[in-house]
Design a protein that fits this description.
By secondary structure, the protein is an alpha/beta fold. It has twelve helices and six strands.
Length: about 240
């Protein structure tokens, strides 16, 4: 599942996800009818509209195969948020069936495929931002496991590391001043750590933090975790650029 942000802003993340999954031995299917996971309406409180989107997701991704998502927040919508909004609905068993096979991509690599080592080099200092939606899941530790396994990667500690970036989807629209202030606080600590790259498994966070950085002239490149894994594999000659 490529997600809306891959479609609109991060097409290379979708391509990197396919490349890494195929390297891992997977056959990747991409249903053309896919749209949104339903999270924007869910977060805004419009659960009726969100349920309509989730029903489309269930129809589009029907079957037994794992649904792998390069986004902690979209994955969490699939295995957590959707269940909450369908608790009193007849479709709940079908929602749970989808939830049980929905994975964030780094979680799937580590805990679904038992991959804990990525060959190749990526000699850079990385500030890894763990998104709010990945807290309480295996995604953050999985991403750290994979990044730490790459030769040359230095994962940096920085202040307010567990702090929200301030995006929060609809939150950033409803409370833009608070959202911006939270992002600026996060960026202040990231900049102090002097990373070569800011990295996350959530594109919404990268979009939000990146937008503030660009406006303030803070030129720290941003990369999704899966892009770094892909680049290391290219360095190792495991996949083609």
């Amino acid at each position: 599942m490529a997600t809306c942000l891959c479609d609109a802003f991060f097409d290379d993340v979708a391509m990197a996800t396919v490349q890494v999954l195929e390297w891992a031995g997977c056959t990747v299917e991409f249903p053309e009818g896919q749209t949104c996971c339903g999270q924007p309406a869910f977060n805004a409180g419009d659960w009726k509209a969100s349920r309509q989107v989730v029903r489309h997701v269930m129809d589009t991704f029907k079957g037994e195969n794992p649904v792998v998502v390069p986004s902690g927040s979209c994955a969490a919508m699939g295995f957590h948020g959707a269940i909450l909004e369908f608790e009193k609905e007849d479709d709940l068993p079908r929602v749970k069936q989808l939830a049980n096979r929905t994975w964030e991509v780094t979680d799937y690599l580590v805990h679904g495929l038992d991959i804990t080592k990525i060959p190749g080099k990526f000699p850079h200092k990385i500030a890894f931002h763990r998104s709010c939606h990945s807290r309480g899941t295996c995604s953050g530790p999985a991403a750290n496991t994979l990044l730490s396994s790459i030769e040359g990667v230095e994962l940096l500690a920085f202040g307010e590391q567990e702090q929200c970036c301030g995006f929060g989807g609809a939150f950033s629209v409803s409370f833009p001043n608070i959202s911006k202030a939270m992002g600026e606080l996060k960026i202040e600590h990231i900049v102090k750590a002097q990373p070569d790259y800011l990295c996350s498994a959530d594109m919404g966070c990268l979009l939000h933090l990146g937008g503030i950085m660009d406006k303030e002239g803070k030129e720290i490149p941003r990369r999704h975790v899966i892009q770094i894994l892909r680049d290391a594999l290219i360095d190792a000659g495991e996949i083609q650029a």
